[in-house]
Amino acid sequence: FVSVLYQWVDCGMNRSTCMSIQVCVTGLVAYLSQKLGVTFYLLGILLCLMVIDYLSGMAASAVEALDHPDDKSYGWSSKKGAKGIAKKVAYLFVIAVGMVIDYVIIQTSGVLGFNLPNTMLSLLVTVWYMLNEALSITENAGRMGAPVPEWLMKYIAALKNKIDSSRENVSSET
Questions:
Q1: Other beta carbons within 10 Å of 44
Q2: Which residues lie closer than 8 Å to 153 by C-beta, 6 or more apart?
Q3: Which run of H or of E encompasses 135?
Q4: Of 20, 139, 168, 171, which sees the most CB atoms within 10 A?
Q5: CB atoms near residue 8 (< 10 Å)
Q6: Does residue 170 surpass a pLDDT of 80?
Q7: Integer Cα distance of 145 and 56 in angstroms
Q8: How many Å from the N-terminal Cα to the C-terminal Cα in the chain?
């Protein structure tokens, strides 16, 4: 990762500047990985899924525009694209709220004399958004004309519903 980062950053900077950036990025990644645990890696996967979803949505819109050249309601628009990006940023805000609630629960439980597993809420929220992105990617593939197995979409939706029902069970217990 660091060597790829070095090649990406090496755009006329001197070697010491590049090394400083590498050290800072490596330190930040190590710190976040230690603090967030498995949620950190899931956030990385979620970010990849978000990019794939955005690109596949653009491609699906382009295909639809080709299929319906006389209908201006089809095709990519910057307004829809901006709305999609804003929605994905809002996902990250919701995950951040889950992390804050996890932190408060962990700190409160420590004061009360018992320990709870950390990052439970943020983990569930992150996985829920990952499934949401996966479902959207498969829908975009279908919009482009790719055959998408119905069982795959049902399986993803079932997993998403399972997380929803587990969250409802937790909230009804409190």
A1: 13
A2: 135, 138, 139
A3: helix 120-143
A4: 139
A5: 10
A6: no
A7: 12
A8: 43
